[in-house]
Amino acid sequence: MKNTSLIVSAVLFVAVAVLYVLHFSGNKMNGSGVGGDSENGASSELKIAFIKVDSLVVNYDFAQEMHDGFTKQQESFTKEYGEKRSRFESQAANFQEKVQRGGFLTQERAMQERDRLVVEEQQIAKLDQELSAKLSQMQADNNKQLLDSVMNYLKIYNKDKKYSYILNAAEVLIGDETQNVTKEVLTGLNARYAKAKLK
């Protein structure tokens, strides 16, 4: 059974390899492949480059500045929320202890304090949601700005280079490293950003 399966796999592999070779050698023979002449006689060479976007973002000064600003804002929000939450928890613990030792003069006064703590807890939960929403919006705005910056630069960059496609390397499984323009694009982006900061 194993031998039969192995033979079938080998035959299928050879058949696919033959089809692959025939397909690509056929394109070269009939002139319809990439780099062939188009109908009007002009060359239609396909030029492709790729960028390692993760590397680009990590080393792009504008992206780092936005990340630093986001991190500071996140720390500020975390501190604000933490202080309010800690103060509330302390008040709630004091309330519990006061109830247990009978520290309230009347039942009504204890209920008022409990109601006040419930309202404060709701306000803290609301603050948490508001701060999280602000951070999410800030992250979305930063991502949009970063994408706009890179895309606008790539349009300028490609006016001279005239690539048919500039791909994200995350989607490229195998690629010729000579087509990797990440360093060149990063240098241009950082130079443009440094120039803009001087204005």
Describe it.
By secondary structure, the chain is mainly α. The protein folds into two domains: 1-35; 47-198, Protein Binding, DinI Protein, Chain A (2-Layer Sandwich), CATH 3.30.910. It has five helices and two strands; from the N terminus they run H-E-H-H-H-E-H. The protein has helices spanning 2-30, 53-59, 61-100, 107-161, 182-198; strands at residues 48-51, 165-168. The protein has a two-stranded parallel ribbon with strand order 1-2. Helix 2 (53-59) runs parallel beside helix 5. The chain is rod-shaped and about 90 Å long. The N and C termini lie far apart (75 Å). 7% of the residues are buried. Mean pLDDT is 81; it is low at 1-42.
Helix/strand layout:
Elements: H1 2-30, E1 48-51, H2 53-59, H3 61-100, H4 107-161, E2 165-168, H5 182-198
Parallel strand pairs: 1-2
